[in-house]
Amino acid sequence: MNAMTPGTDAARFPVQALRGQFPALQRAADFIFFDNAAGAQVPHGVLAAVNEHLVGHNVQRGGRYPQSVAVDASIQRGRAAVAALLNARRPEEIAFGMNATSFIRLVSLAIGQTLGARKEIILTDLDHEANVATWLVLERLGAQFRWWRMRDDGCLHCEDLEPLVGPRTRLLACALASNALGSIVDVHRAARLVHGAGGEIFLDAVHYAPHGPIDVQALECDYLVCSGYKIFAPHMGFLWGRYELLAQLPTFREDFIPDQPPGKIEAGTFIYENVAGMAAAVDYLAALGHSLGARPADGAAELRDGCHAAMAAIRSYEQVLSRELLRVLRTAGATVYGLSDAAQVEGRVPTVCFNLPGIVPAAVTEAAAAAGIGIRDGHMYAPRLMHRLGLAVAQGAVRVSLVHYNTLAEIERFAAVLDRLRRTP
Ligand SMILES: Cc1ncc(COP(=O)(O)O)c(C=O)c1O
């Protein structure tokens, strides 16, 4: 299974039928959700699962009465579902919590305590600040930093990583895809380089997750973090780690909690209803995959194969959206940061940062809002990236971020806004 290969024919992608499954899209009528990188909408199965939790068993886990037993079963089901989504070796490798940032911090705190002779952490100037600042604070524990820098094409190249890796490398922290530019990182090759030197790789999959298949075994990574609210579930986060590594991590836990994953990673109570919602989001994806012809299997394999087929189809369909979005931006005379050529869409997801000549980013997003289109301007929580692009962090750029429920017709409406802006003196 190749984690990054586009799959099913994009022309067969049932976008209208899928849109019908998202109540927020129905309620919003003509409004266009083009700010999905900041959070996506949820299908009705997710709403039903959250509702069922709150109405049917909104109690603490670990009790002997039926509602509490149901919570334990729901958490177990959530772990199995996310394990299938990521092709994890076992459900205990999945931990649930508040969001991605708090998990990155949890792992960075643990890594900081175990630096030993390997004190070097490799960071990138393409990443969301959540996967940078959380590591930089380890300086006071003796960590040293090396920077894997983005090239002018808006991509990280493994040739530039090679000289940074050595016997003192403890960890590489990097994203699967940039939440600002949409560029995809060859994390599999990066993992091989880092492992070759005896280091580890921590992946921020928050931005990539709604756009394509993730297979932690094929990627050969060590840790991976993700946010449910970017992948059609409610606000929550999850961490995957190789079981042996999680087992060794020094984490905070009360004395009576066994020093074993996942309990040792999940201090306190997390949002059970949103874990139920996350499991339902995985069901939604698996059902999409099966409707597109993923072969039926049993149990975990059925979910895994369904999700993989869905994400491969989403990846293909989104490449069509990327091509059209880039065409529209070129016609509008925009400066697109990162991969801007339609021939390069395989290297990106449909998240595009741009500026229009002589127009401040906020004016573009305001014009879009007035036309019923939600997009975003600013630094996208990637201030180092903005600096690298030569943009004022306070102003940044305009970002349009699409997911699989967006359509070519919506892009045409956005094109009309750009056209009006261009003609306005
Ligand atoms: C790439 C990336 N990493 C990390 C985060 C932070 O995620 P969370 O809000 O779950 O902490 C985001 C949020 O936008 C993101 O896009």
Order of helices and strands: HHEHHEHEHEHEHEHEEHHHEEHEEHEH
| Biggest beta sheet attributes | 7 strands, mixed
CATH level-two architecture of the largest domain: 3-Layer(aba) Sandwich
How much helicity do the residues have? 40-55%
Shape type: globular
Could you give the distance between the termini?
Answer: 52 Å
User: What value does the average pLDDT take?
Assistant: 95
Could you state the CATH homologous superfamily of the largest domain?
Answer: Type I PLP-dependent aspartate aminotransferase-like (Major domain)
Q: Please count the beta strands (DSSP E, at least 2 residues each).
A: 13
Proportion of beta-strand residues: 5-15%
| Major β-sheet strand ordering | 2-8-7-6-5-3-4
Structure ligands = pyridoxal-5'-phosphate
